Amino acid sequence: MNFNKKSYDLENLPNWLTFLRDDVKLTSLGMGFARLPKGQGYTFIHKHENQEEIYIVLDGKGIIYLDGELIDLNPGDVVRVNPEVYRALKADDESELVCLIVGGLPVEGFPRSTKSSTLIDDGIPDWDHLPPWCEGNEKIIELNKKIRAQRESKK
To answer: N or C, which terminus of the chain has less Cβ within 10 Å?
Structure first.
């Protein structure tokens, strides 16, 4: 077979991240849906080694953190981000945020790991700096410690 197909119920995507890698057998493209509940956002910022990303807002409103700048997001917005830019998403306090995230990856050696539930292969989390909506939140700091430990144990 020279293609793969999977249908998603866009009205009822699970919260947080849905990677398409395994469902459609991606080998050189990172792709996933982000569905963030009202007022919720990523708990850490990250950048990539090589992957530029495109964030396509399908529904709702929110903001994207890009190297310290907060950019408003609305349906139909498309944002391209260089690999070295630290980024994070957050839904508006009054609206969930649904995005399609697409990133080009080198074919050689992809995927490096299929175990991560938080970042695609070349993602580099910055555990020491939180998105502004999480700063000072001890629960988030503890959550990130657990995510970091899980991620590092799977390498």
So the answer is: N
Task: Note down the domain range covering 64.
Answer: 14-153
Dihedral Cα 62, 53, 6, 9, nearest 10 deg: 0
Q: Is residue 4 part of a domain?
A: no
In this structure, is residue 26 part of a structural domain? yes
| Phi, psi (degrees; rounded to nearest 5) at 44 | -150, 160
CATH code for the domain of 132: 2.60.120.10
pLDDT at 1 (0 to 100): 67
Bond preceding residue 111 cis, omega within 30 of 0: yes
φ/ψ of 58, rounded to 5, equals -90, -35
Tens digits of per-residue pLDDT, 98-118? 999 998 766 565 555 555 555
Distance between the two ends of the chain, CA-based, in angstroms? 32
3-state secondary structure of 132: coil
- Look at the block and give the residue holding tokens 């503890």: 142
Residue type, 112: R
